[in-house]
């Protein structure tokens, strides 16, 4: 008789492989970099790290499953539908939550107000931000000029109101650019993988290594344009890797879901898979990061303007005013405090909005 | 000692229909996964034949390669890490493995479709069920949105989802497990494909719903005269539905037979073990005959017959010689050197 190997199994422990066989994805490695440590070198500041950290908690797409519990019987959903009126998607669910969130309502109101005055500042400020009278230089609050005058004798109230436009424009445009470029590149890399993905990942590492302020000093000091475009372009250039990394991780996670496999098995093309099946499920973390980043970009614009490489006069911007006022903080603190306060409020509003959106899109955090 | 019967490796059981090529003809399919821990040989030379209108059940434990075989046939294997390293997959005479990806994509859904195990995770959570069904017509048939929508509702009616027109506007998580699997079936059936591969279609459902879904699937298969490959690890599910059964172990077919022959007299010790491990009412109180040991790791498949470490019949040659699929009678095959003894003991 042949020898028979004794139990237990000589071939090592059995590993229960999933339906896709025994292999590992590198997804963990890809998202490990979204922790605060990896982002800090950009020097963009704490809020950017916050954004990245919070996006990482969203790496799994929010599940619409209404929590654990017994599987409803066949008739249950029909009843539930009648009770709730109409079926709710992930997005309408999120909207439903947001409407009841005081943090969201407060920040949304502030942002709405900021948007309105950036479109038409003359609604609440009748003066001209560029008409200044040196005779009033550094004067404090007087009737008709509630915020006083700055070093050049310009009305601080008018300048603060008009400064909103530039700050919001820079923030919105930079965020749109970053979100678009980052999610397209990161999404494609995450979906197709391979060499392109490897190259892109290394490229993002390179960009992460560039300190933002130093990069700004070097790149923007050679620009002579007075428009906001060089600043926006610079932010997009340095900001896209952040979103790209998050989009890539998110697409990797979603791309592994069964419904993507199922859509493939039923003949969906790459374009359809990406746009109709992956994008709507993977976009939530990108939205959260983008909302929080918007506040950061507004602050960054002020920072760059402060060090003198951002926007230039005669453009009216909070950063320029803060920069001009800072030497006189002892004599005339109001010159600094009003634009700085406006900046702080705006950044806070966007970060709170991002926070509320994150909560709404990720029910598991609650 | 040598086995004395003529070892003619069987050409495989007859495909069930005499006329022409079978609908699906898989020969010598090999798939491996290249991982950091080594190469996992998930499928090691699988032969499968499915005739039009026939139901073939592929039976096996987790990790026996049945789902990977299905993915390779459908062309949705994740590459990398999965690689098809050999064999051919002929569908209506055309070798799918050499077909350009774009042509293959057009086949998927239209001529061959797949039903997944867990319909909740296999349906897109952000699209309504109606949208997902309508997509089949939009993608493959280029119908108008309105017509696709009407066809979707029609299909939901067909798989007996009550109030189909309203439910088409619901999202997958609003359906019960059984209803969701019906939606999945409707999606697979949408374009009336010639072949459906159902990968454990009822595993995620509870027992009463399992029977309903299985009956529906069998009925629709008859109605549309499709070939069905039913992948399962549940011997109870296949008995009523399947025409033939192929049993897989460690990435190979170890036995293939018409369903009744297999249940009556298994010709492979592994099949015997599987049948013995079903709890039975008439043997209440006695110990269940589970197969001892564990399935082999796919990175380290035993030489010779992969089942030998667990096999009560194993002898010297099992440790060295890989058994081919012997013709073990009419229309059946067994990859055991001692299939005669198995049949004799069973009969």
Task: Please give a structural write-up.
The complex is a heterodimer of chains A (366) and B (347). Chain A has helices at residues 27-32, 36-39, 46-56, 76-84, 90-99, 102-119, 156-192, 194-208, 212-220, 229-255, 258-265, 270-306, 318-325, 333-361. Chain A starts with 26 loop residues before the first helix and ends in a 5-residue tail after the last helix. Chain A is an all-alpha fold. Chain A contains 14 helices and no strands. Chain B is of the alpha/beta class and 347 residues long. Among the domains of chain B are: 52-76 and 100-111 and 195-280 and 312-347, 3-Layer(aba) Sandwich (Rossmann fold); 119-190, no CATH class. Chain B has helices at 66-74, 101-107, 119-122, 129-140, 145-158, 164-167, 177-189, 207-224, 235-241, 259-264, 269-276, 316-320, 339-346; strands at residues 24-35, 38-50, 55-59, 82-91, 94-95, 112-115, 195-199, 227-232, 244-249, 252-258, 326-327, 333-334. In chain B, α8 links the parallel β7 (195-199) and β8. In chain B, α4 (129-140) packs across α5 (145-158), α5 (145-158) crosses α7 and α7 packs parallel to α8. The two termini of chain B are 25 Å apart. Mean pLDDT of chain B is 81; it is low at 1-19. Classes of the chains: A mainly alpha (366), B alpha/beta (347). At the A-B interface, α4, α11 and α12 of A face β1, α1, α2, α3 and α4 of B.
Number of distinct beta strands of chain B:
12
- Computed structural class of chain A: mainly alpha
Oligomer: heterodimer
Unreliable stretches of chain A: 1-47, 59-85
The averaged pLDDT of chain A comes out at: 74
User: Spatial order of the strands in the main sheet of chain B?
Assistant: 6-7-8-3-9-10-12-11
Q: Helix/strand-derived class of chain B? A: alpha/beta
Q: How many alpha or pi helices of chain B?
A: 13
The percent range for strand residues of chain A is: under 5%
Please count the beta strands of chain A (DSSP E, at least 2 residues each).
0
Distance between the termini of chain B: 25 Å
Largest interface: A-B, 58 and 82 residues
Uncertain segments of chain B are 1-19
């Amino acid at each position: 008789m042949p020898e028979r190997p004794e139990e237990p199994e000589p071939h090592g422990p059995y590993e229960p492989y999933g339906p896709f066989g025994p292999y590992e994805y590198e997804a963990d490695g890809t998202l490990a970099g979204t922790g605060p440590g990896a982002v800090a070198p950009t020097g963009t500041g704490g809020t950017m790290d916050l954004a990245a950290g919070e996006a990482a908690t969203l790496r799994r797409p929010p599940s619409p499953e209404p929590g654990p519990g017994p599987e409803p019987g066949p008739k249950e959903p029909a009843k539930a539908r009648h009770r709730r009126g109409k079926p709710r998607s992930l997005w309408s669910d999120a909207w439903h939550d947001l409407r009841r969130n005081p943090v969201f309502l407060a920040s949304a109101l502030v942002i709405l107000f900021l948007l309105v005055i950036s479109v038409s500042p003359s609604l609440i400020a009748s003066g001209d931000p560029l008409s200044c009278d040196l005779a009033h230089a550094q004067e404090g609050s007087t009737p008709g000029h509630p915020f006083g005058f700055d070093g050049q004798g310009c009305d601080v109230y008018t300048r603060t109101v008009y400064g909103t436009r530039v700050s919001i424009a820079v923030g919105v445009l930079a965020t749109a650019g970053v979100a678009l470029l980052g999610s397209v590149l990161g999404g494609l890399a995450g979906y197709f993988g391979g060499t392109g993905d490897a190259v892109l990942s290394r490229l993002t590492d390179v960009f992460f290594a560039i300190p933002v302020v130093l990069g700004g000093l070097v790149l923007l000091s050679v620009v002579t344009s007075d428009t906001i475009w060089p600043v926006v372009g610079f932010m997009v250039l340095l900001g896209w890797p952040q979103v790209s990394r998050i989009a890539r991780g998110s697409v990797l996670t979603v791309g592994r879901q069964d419904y993507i496999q199922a859509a493939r098995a039923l003949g969906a093309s790459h374009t359809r898979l990406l746009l109709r099946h992956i994008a709507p499920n993977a976009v939530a973390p990108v939205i959260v990061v983008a909302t929080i980043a918007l506040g950061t970009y507004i602050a960054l614009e002020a920072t760059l303007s402060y060090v003198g490489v951002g926007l230039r006069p005669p453009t009216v911007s909070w950063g320029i005013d803060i920069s001009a006022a800072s030497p006189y903080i002892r004599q005339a603190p109001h010159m600094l405090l009003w634009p700085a306060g406006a900046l702080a409020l705006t950044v806070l509003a966007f970060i709170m909005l991002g926070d509320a959106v994150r909560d709404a899109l990720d029910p598991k955090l609650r | 000692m040598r086995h004395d019967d003529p070892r003619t490796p069987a050409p495989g059981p007859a495909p069930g229909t005499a006329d022409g090529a079978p609908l699906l003809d898989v020969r010598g399919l090999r798939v491996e996964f290249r991982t950091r821990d080594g190469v996992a040989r998930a499928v090691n030379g699988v032969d499968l034949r499915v005739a039009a209108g026939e139901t073939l059940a592929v039976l096996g434990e987790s990790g026996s390669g049945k789902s990977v075989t299905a993915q390779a046939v459908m062309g949705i294997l994740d590459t990398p890490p999965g690689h098809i390293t050999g064999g051919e997959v002929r569908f209506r005479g055309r070798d799918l493995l050499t077909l350009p990806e774009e042509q293959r994509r057009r086949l998927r859904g239209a001529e061959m479709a797949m039903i997944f195990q867990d319909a909740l995770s296999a349906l897109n959570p952000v699209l309504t069920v109606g949208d997902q069904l309508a997509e089949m017509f939009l993608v493959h048939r280029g119908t108008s949105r309105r017509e696709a929508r009407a066809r979707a509702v029609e299909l939901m009616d067909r798989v007996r989802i009550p109030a189909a027109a309203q439910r088409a506007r619901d999202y997958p998580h609003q359906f019960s497990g059984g209803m969701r699997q019906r939606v999945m079936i409707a999606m697979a059936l949408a374009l009336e494909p010639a072949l459906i591969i159902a990968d454990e279609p009822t595993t995620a459902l509870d027992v009463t719903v399992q029977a309903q879904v299985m009956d529906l699937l069998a009925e629709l298969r008859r109605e549309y005269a499709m070939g069905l490959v039913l992948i399962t690890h549940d011997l109870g599910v296949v008995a009523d539905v399947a025409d033939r059964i192929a049993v897989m172990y460690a990435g190979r077919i170890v036995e293939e037979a018409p369903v009744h022959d297999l249940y009556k007299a298994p010709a492979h010790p592994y099949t015997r073990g599987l049948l013995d491990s079903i709890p039975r009412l008439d043997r209440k109180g006695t110990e269940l005959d589970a197969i001892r040991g564990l399935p082999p790791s796919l990175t380290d498949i035993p030489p010779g017959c992969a089942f030998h470490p667990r096999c009560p019949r194993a002898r010297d040659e099992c440790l060295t010689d890989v058994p081919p699929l012997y013709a073990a009678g009419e229309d059946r095959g067994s990859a055991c050197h001692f299939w005669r003894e198995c049949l004799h003991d069973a009969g």
